[in-house]
Amino acid sequence: MDNIKIAAVASNSEVAQAALAELTGRYATVAPEDADTIIALGGDGFMLETQHRFMGLSKPIYGMNRGTVGFLMNEFDLEDLPGRISDAESADLRPLRMRTETVYGVSQDALAINEVSVLRQTRQAAKIEIHVDGVIRVPELICDGALVATPSGSTAYNLSAHGPIIPLGGNVLALTPISAFRPRRWRGALLPSGARVVFRVLEGQKRPVSAVADYTEVRDVALVEIQEDPDMTIQLLFDAEHNLEERILNEQFTP
User: Fold this and answer.
1) Among 5, 29, 81, 203, which residue's CB has the most CB atoms within a 10 Å radius?
2) What does the alpha-carbon distance between residue 173 and residue 107 come to, in Å, rounded to a whole number?
3) Domain map of the chain by residue range?
């Protein structure tokens, strides 16, 4: 499939910009809206940015690592790039939709591909009441915060907070506390992918809390509702020998 139409975007790093120049010197590129596939050159942070930027186009994204970790990226190699894209395996991701209401009554929505987190804003611990599908599951969580992570985001902040790694096809979400003080032994839960999670902030004026959907932050929240968006799908492409499902599985055996 040598006639595949590709668009290329890159992070601002020197390495990524050099890769972009090399790629456009070897292959013809088009605008993202006219492409069959968008190529992202950078690290995982830039991949997340690219997914958000082009979410409305419904175009598959093929990343090549010109960053640091590159968990969501393929190896950088420009040899037979159209062939690699044609042979790549697809992974479909569903983002989370965050709906917030502040203590001042202001509402805001945002989408998260990795996770939605609520975090204390001051020195005082947050107090959060957690509802799952309309049932109060945790009446009072005293903590630095809590998060809901997607399978693709389970190896990011969720893993740092000692949450579980979720296989991509697991159809579950991770609900993970962040530095929980009470209940001290609660480690979180795995929820069906369609679950509706609500964080209700207790004593929000005294113990202010912010909500973050990937990199969209809303401060002084009183209520945060989180649910998978059934109408939004993001398609990532991976080389068959190192696909995303394998990466997530392998991460569970990495010291």
Assistant:
1) 81
2) 24
3) 6-93+233-251, 96-228
Which CATH number, 3.40.50.720, 3.30.830.10, 3.40.50.10330, 3.40.50.10800, labels domain 6-93+233-251? 3.40.50.10330
The answer to whether 6-93+233-251 and 96-228 have equal CATH topology is no
Which residue type sits at 238?
F
pTM of the predicted structure, to 2 decimals: 0.86
> Do 214 and 112 contact (CB within 8 A), yes or no?
yes
Active site residues: 44
Predicted pLDDT of residue 161: 95
Answer whether residue 32 shows pLDDT above 50.
Answer: yes
Share of the chain above pLDDT 70, in %: 98
Residue 194 to residue 230: CA distance in whole angstroms:
9
Confidence of residue 1 (pLDDT cuts 50, 70, 90): very low
| CA–CA dist 211, 227 (Å, integer) | 14
Asked if pLDDT for residue 91 goes beyond 90, the answer is no
User: 112: which strand partners?
Assistant: 96
**How far is residue 122 CA from its own chain's centroid?**
25
pLDDT band at 61 (very low <50, low <70, confident <90, very high): very high
Domain 96-228 superfamily per CATH? Probable inorganic polyphosphate/atp-NAD kinase; domain 2 (2.60.200.30)
Nearest-10 Cα torsion for 163, 167, 169, 174: 0
Bridge partners of 42? Answer: 65
Give every CB contact of residue 153 below 8 A, 6+ residues apart in sequence: 112, 113, 114, 115
